[in-house]
Amino acid sequence: MAAGDKPSATERALQDARDSLDEGFFPLEFFHDEDLHDLEMERIIGQSWVFIGHESEIPEPGDYARRYIGDDTFIFVRDESGEVNLLFDSCRHRGAQVCRAEQGNTSHFRCPYHGWTYKNDGEAAGIPQKSKAFKNLDRSEYGLAHVPRLESYEGLVFASLAEEGPSLDEWLGDFKWYFDVHMKLPEGGMEVIGEPHRWVIDANWKTIADNFNGDSYHTAWAHGSVLDLELGGEETVGHAGTGDSLDRHIHCDGHTTSMRGFEGEDVFLTYPDEVVEDLFTREGLSDAQWQLARQALSFTGAIFPNFGFLHFGDTTDDPEKDVAPFFTIRKWRPLGPDQMELWSWGLAPKNAPEEFKQRMYKMYTANFGPTGNFEQDDVPIWKGITDSASGQFASSQNLQLNYQMGLEWMSEMDIDEEWLGPGFAYSENLEEGGMRLFHEQWYEMLAGNDRTDATGTPINLQEDR
Amino acid sequence: MLAERESQLEALLVEREVEQFLYEEAELLDNRELHEWFDHVADDVNYRMPRRLMRENTSSVFSEQGYYFNEDYGSLKARVERFDSEYAWAERPPTRTRRYVTNVRVTRETEDLTEDELFVESNLLVYLSRGDSDEHTFYSARREDVLRRRGDTFEIADREIRLDQTVLSTDNVSIFL
């Protein structure tokens, strides 16, 4: 909290949250609170690296797509020189929006109000009647505003509303080691298929963040219908804690991933042999990264604060058909304490045969996105959590949610000392450390502190990085 | 003159049959008699709902790659059967729906169709309400169907659902349209 500010009731409540978190508790009321939402927008969304889109969505000069950070609207656009920009969608004259389509291709954006016109790199190109009406106005100072910082990692573009702070590279830290496995495995990398699914749901954004930060415990229960129908191999959905497979929860520089795999086997997320043989490359991957990919059946994960991903093998849309993998990334955009917009993209290896890319996209829509056989059942549950948090009872009774799974007094939970990657891995998936890590970072940023990792060490400030 | 009247009358009867079929289909779906509904799906069905895009200067553009549904017989059947599971939480309790099918038009003279197939366009408005909440929402769509005669009824051989929304305002899509 900045010095001199009078603490609000919410901020006072937050002071107690730190103690709760150490015990593995998180107050239910924090899933629906107007004041907290405002603070989250300012101190978390406004200070973090937020996902915007993949460069393959705007391949040609002039290609653009409307994108959002919190409540702000931006134009994600490739300019004539091929550079990717993120421009604030507001005319510098009176503030009107200059882009009203969801996507398209244009060399210029023109304000409908008075006709001020901007090139697709944001530069002001035309001001009607300038020589008479605005003769001393310096056009170069009146371009569309660029987002303060925009950076790209393997085609994934992130932006920050904060002028200063850790670079994207520092923000992702060693977690890139894991994401490299997804993005660099096929020669030519991954690309987005089609356009992202978007849907607005009446749930707090932290509910989905919890889910993607390592909720292996819910899978067999919430997605029992997928198991019943045999729409994925038993291992894909699976029951947490069976120990039949290589199940790890990994924490790395503030981000998390869960994996399921098989030791010493060639699984490669069930990509077909021809894709593995023709496209998968060890170039750019270390031996350990290659070994991880080789043994992996599925990955779930989250990059703090609002980016998630799933890379699953062994799924199908029809029990009579062969299984295939899918890869999806997503963003949860908070719209209010009880509402968010979900954005969800399907990806496939850029250089894979067209038919296989279609099959992967089909696996994605069959399982996730608004119609997905998995996802259909998740979202109403998150809505219910938000509803429970919204009334008097949660706060008047100080109801605390339990995130104690994996804490030392609840179970024997080992760290895998032999783990091949950075960060650290729990040797099984019946634990909720990823969610605690998420809430700890949430707390620290909300309180105006630096993010900390799971051991309490500030992230992004480590001198030796 | 008489021949012309007869052919008009014939067209009217076909339209009436098609409308009755679409109304009955709507009732099966509203009653969540999904297996009975699926009995009217052809085994070579192509059932799809592309993603609507809001591009510059156009009103009705649909993605060629992005979709909500792109189902064949097997994958549609799997979706139907999934709701038999006691773990299909999205529909426990079931969504209450009421489908309004209007503006039904039948065209028989489309090139790709066989003699027993009809090209049918219709508008669809679906009211949805869930749980014990007073909240409700709607899907609005245009449908393009190919209906094939089967005995004294039809089967759905092809359906494209063109939703009017670009951003969905529901938690999920756990019904068929």
From TrEMBL, chain A:
SUPFAM superfamilies per UniProt: Bet v1-like, ISP domain
Taxonomic lineage of the native organism: Archaea, Methanobacteriati, Methanobacteriota, Stenosarchaea group, Halobacteria
Segments forming domain Rieske: 49-147
GO-annotated molecular function: 2 iron, 2 sulfur cluster binding; dioxygenase activity; iron ion binding
Keywords noted in UniProt: 2Fe-2S, Dioxygenase, Iron, Iron-sulfur, Metal-binding, NAD, Oxidoreductase
This protein's name: Rieske [2Fe-2S] domain-containing protein
Family stated for the protein in its record: Belongs to the bacterial ring-hydroxylating dioxygenase alpha subunit family.
Protein species of origin: Halobellus limi
Signal peptide extent: none
Pfam name, any one: Rieske
Automatic annotation (TrEMBL), chain B:
InterPro entries: NTF2-like_dom_sf, Rng_hydr_dOase-bsu
UniProt-listed PANTHER family: 3-PHENYLPROPIONATE_CINNAMIC ACID DIOXYGENASE SUBUNIT BETA (PTHR41534:SF2), BLR3401 PROTEIN (PTHR41534)
Organism domain of life: Archaea
UniProt cross-references to Pfam families, sorted A to Z: Ring_hydroxyl_B (PF00866)
Molecular-function GO terms, alphabetical: dioxygenase activity
Annotated keywords: Dioxygenase, Oxidoreductase
Database matches in CDD domains: ring_hydroxylating_dioxygenases_beta (cd00667)
Protein name: 3-phenylpropionate/cinnamic acid dioxygenase, small subunit
GO biological process: one example: 3-phenylpropionate catabolic process
Lineage per the UniProt record: Archaea, Methanobacteriati, Methanobacteriota, Stenosarchaea group, Halobacteria
